[in-house]
Fold this sequence. Notes:
This protein is α/β, with parallel strands linked by helices. Helices cover 40% and strands 16% of the residues. An 8-stranded parallel beta barrel has the order 3-4-5-6-7-8-9-10, surrounded by 6 helices. Helix 2 (76-89) packs across helix 3 (117-131), helix 4 (150-162) crosses helix 5 (176-188) and helix 10 packs across helix 11 (305-321). The model has no long low-confidence stretch (mean pLDDT 96). NADPH dihydro-nicotinamide-adenine-dinucleotide phosphate (NDP) is lined by residues 35-39, 65, 142, 172-173, 197, 226-232, 235-237, 246-247, 282, 299-303, 307, 310-311. The site of NADPH dihydro-nicotinamide-adenine-dinucleotide phosphate has 31 residues, from strand 10 and helix 11.
Amino acid sequence: MQHQIYVANEQRYSNGMIYARCGRSGIQLPKISLGFWHNFGGIDSFERSREIVRHAFDRGINHFDLANNYGPPYGSAEKTFGRLMLEDFLPYRDELFISTKAGYDMWPGPYGNWGSRKYLMASLDQSLKRMNLDYVDLFYIHRFDPLTPIEETLQAMVDIVRQGKALYLGISRWPLQETEKAIRYLAARDTPLLIYQGRLNMLDHEPMDHGILDLCEKCGVGFISFSPLAQGLLTNRYLSNIPKDSRMANKSSLPSSLLTPDLMQKLRQWNSEATAEGITLAQKALQWVLKQKLTTSVIIGASSTAQLDDNLGALKLLANHQ
Ligand code: NDP
């Protein structure tokens, strides 16, 4: 089927999106970014994925977050993005900020996981091919590898930038001490750490409690929160039942055992507060993260454009508070 040629909305930068500087860098990121973990894999409808990504870009979301193994199957979210890149986004490449990651299970054998130079280099080469890109804007080490010497992982990152395959570097879910080491190592080689990706939301304050946010602030590193809606818990999705088309009904990443009576009570309470404020629970939750000092951006997921629009509504409230 012939797809309709995409022409991006001319108003995309005056539509209400807010851009924030990422740490002490030259890069500004949209306050709301879009992640490809779920809903963009080979099992999902390509046309639905296309609709969501186009809609996002039209509303000023120019940062898309991927990883080698997003799908399922592994690699297929990058392939979806690669097709969109060729069919829709080629004229807009320089307006986009694309990240990918390596660090988790990707291919069989000893070289398809964790933090060796061998894995990281091969994985990024594969990602670039799948995404039809010459370079990514941001390459992340997806998790800290306690068994590989940290210098090996970090030097691979430095060399990836020197090879021109990534413009900036990030780490995700690294412990505090190793994050400090990474910041020092990379700065000494003129390839400073741009950003730390961690889970921060109304239910999970780990990066705050573990000193990551303070460290980022001290060192001029940006912070971006993944799963700011706790995979959909912090929305109206589960207030009365578990909808058939929801992540909880269909994916192992959000088991229904999480939905305890205590949590239900909290969610309903926050939902009533949100309603009293004239906003949705999702907007309240995003606002909470975005108001934390130093949060550069939140990476949301969405299974529809309606969810995207609901989430983008959080920016209006933020603008009113600025
Ligand atoms: P969210 O917490 O935003 O959850 C997204 C899900 O919540 C959607 O798929 C949808 O679920 C539901 N949802 C979103 N908006 C609404 C709304 N307005 N109303 C009702 N339901 C809504 O983020 P994700 O957990 O998807 O993570 C976002 C991104 O973060 C990932 O794509 C990835 O890029 C990154 N990430 C990084 C990790 C890391 O280790 N670095 C780990 C996890 C994520 P439904 O499908 O039920 O409709």
